[in-house]
Design a protein that fits this description.
The complex is a heterodimer of chains A (about 110) and B (about 110). Chain A has about 110 residues and is mainly beta. Chain A contains no helices and 11 strands. Classes of the chains: A mainly beta (about 110), B mainly beta (about 110).
Chain lengths: ~110, ~110
């Protein structure tokens, strides 16, 4: 089955810094999502981005499907950005969504 | 804003007891997923429904876990008997048939003692 890798596994940032999180996947996909898991465990949808670039405030994401990777950019980080960021992919319309291992982000004041 | 509803939020049960979780997907979402997330790991799919039919239950431990979605709307996940290793977050998600974008509920955090 498809493999999903995320890097780095852990990241500590000073408030106000920028960061880039990476997601690599081993096969073609027609679904790619980025989630933020908050301290209470809920998965918050950030982007649905099987290809192209999207922006939402301080966050943006780019997926290069032909090269099998996606990037999540966080600018001017805030302490509320702390948590775990997951990339999740699916290969067909009816396929299960497979999660990567996540990147744990800590933003310190 | 429409949300996936899950209950209970927290559950503590003794090993060998039965436990059940409930999920109500976003209205109109035909696809429903149950995931299990062990602390420090990403969620793993247990079962996927399309309407009332099971599409994928290959990772569901069928000797103790069961899931149903009788009318193709809400769903119940049951564990009987619970084991210590079942302690985890159980997440429900839903999506439409047209889009595979999944939306998650707040989860049920299970502790087996």
């Amino acid at each position: 089955g498809i493999q999903v890798e995320q890097s780095p596994p852990d990241l500590i940032l000073q408030e106000g810094a920028n960061s880039t999180l990476r997601c690599n996947f081993s096969d073609s996909v027609n679904n790619l999502q980025w989630f933020h898991q908050n301290p209470w465990g809920q998965l918050i949808n950030l982007f649905y981005i099987p290809s192209g670039t999207k922006q939402n405030g301080r966050l943006s994401a780019t997926t290069v499907a032909t090269e099998r990777y996606s990037l999540l950019y966080i600018s001017s980080s805030q302490t509320t950005d702390s948590g775990v960021y997951f990339c999740a992919v699916g290969q067909t319309s009816y396929d299960k969504v497979i999660f990567g291992p996540g990147t744990s982000l800590s933003v310190i004041p | 804003e429409a949300e996936v509803a899950q209950s209970p939020r927290y559950k503590i049960t003794e090993k060998s007891q039965a436990v059940a979780f409930w999920c109500d997907p976003i209205s109109g979402h035909a696809t429903l997923y149950w995931y299990r997330q062990i602390l420090g790991q990403g969620p793993e799919l247990l079962v996927q429904f399309q309407d009332e039919s099971v599409v994928d239950d290959s990772q569901l431990p069928k000797d103790r876990f069961s899931a149903e979605r009788l009318k193709g709307v809400d769903s119940t996940l049951k564990i009987q008997p619970a084991e210590l290793g079942d302690s985890a977050m159980y997440l429900c998600a839903s999506s439409t048939t047209q889009s595979t974008e999944a939306f998650f509920g707040q989860g049920t955090r299970l502790t087996v003692v």
